[in-house]
Design goal:
alpha/beta, seven-stranded parallel sheet, 7 strands, globular
């Protein structure tokens, strides 16, 4: 039986990288997208291939919605050239950027930038992928713990993530007849280079987050990817329309 195929956006580093590697460990082939760092993306693909799965690498800028059609055409082409098929099975909308912007200092430009990457881009990339997404497949959208609890400066980012959470429920409702499941994974504070390595480069913040988390540490990238990969397995076949927070129980 041929492997299933997942498309993971923003998988050259951080959480996306671990999602791609975790999916491969479950026997799923992966199409990796990157924004600027092709070399790092190819390293991730090489790691996956060494582990026995197939991988492909494509560029994607989620802030440029006019390029989404062209991107989906490239996905179709790589599906044919690498897998000799015209569809894939799992879409993981992970690509994103961080920004800490107090409401009083928010600009329309910053708002629109985050809107395009975190909501509008996710909405329309998903829409455009539907014709090449297999029935019985799945969509995993990445949200944030900050839709449940508030972190000052995250009002724009978290509002977009909250919109994606509602969108995910609608995907589950409208695509269920095709056997396609849609779920949210919402990471808590995780130590990566996201948002200029906000946690890693700030010992005080890291100590505070640790103190607020029952399990007594901040999250690591490999805490998240395994949950995303699980949602793309037969074991998760009855999980649909759910928000799964992966945060160590922070701010209970």
């Amino acid at each position: 039986m041929s492997s299933k195929i997942a498309l993971v956006t923003g998988a050259s580093r951080g959480l996306g990288k671990d999602m791609a590697v975790s999916l491969a460990k479950k026997g799923i082939d992966v199409i990796i997208t990157y924004h600027t760092n092709k070399e790092e993306a190819e390293k991730v693909a090489s790691q996956i291939v060494k582990g026995g799965q197939k991988a492909a690498v494509l560029p994607l800028d989620m802030s440029k919605l006019s390029l989404l059609d062209e991107f989906v055409t490239k996905v179709s082409a790589v599906l044919q050239s690498t897998w000799n098929t015209d569809k894939f099975d799992f879409l993981i909308n992970n690509a994103g950027v961080g920004a800490t912007i107090p409401i009083a200092q928010a600009t329309e430009e910053a708002f629109d930038h985050l809107l395009h990457i975190h909501f509008k881009g996710v909405y329309f990339l998903t829409q455009k992928c539907l014709p090449i997404l297999n029935d019985q497949g799945g969509i995993v959208n990445i949200s944030s713990g900050t839709t449940r609890f508030c972190v000052p400066g995250y009002s724009i980012y978290s509002s977009m993530k909250a919109a994606v959470e509602v969108f995910t429920k609608y995907l589950a409702k409208e695509l269920g007849q095709k056997g396609i499941r849609a779920n949210i994974v919402a990471p808590g504070a995780t130590e990566t280079d996201f948002n200029n390595a906000a946690i890693r480069s700030n010992p005080q913040m890291k100590a505070f987050i640790t103190s607020q988390t029952p399990l007594g540490r901040v999250g690591q990238a490999d805490d998240i990817g395994s949950v995303v990969a699980f949602l793309c397995t037969e074991d998760a076949r009855w999980i649909n329309g759910q928000r799964i927070e992966v945060s160590g129980g922070i701010n209970l």
